Amino acid sequence: MLSSKSSKCSHGEVEFLGEQSGDKGVNRYYKCRKCGAVLVLSEDGVLYEVTAESVGKLQRESQ
User: Fold this and answer.
1) SS3 of residue 61 by DSSP
2) How confident is the model at residue 7, as a pLDDT?
3) What are phi and psi of 38, to 5 degrees?
4) What pTM was estimated for this model as a whole?
């Protein structure tokens, strides 16, 4: 699930995963240490959340 709305977790403690160049700037990727969600701060300043369940599903599908 990709969402731009906040979930029940406040994502107060995150780990920086890296960044990727975009057309206008840089996308930054973080992982919440509490719930496992991946947070994407887009080059446009929009914060997206990929739930831990979706991350696990994507990892299984790529194997």
Assistant:
1) helix
2) 54
3) -100, 130
4) 0.73
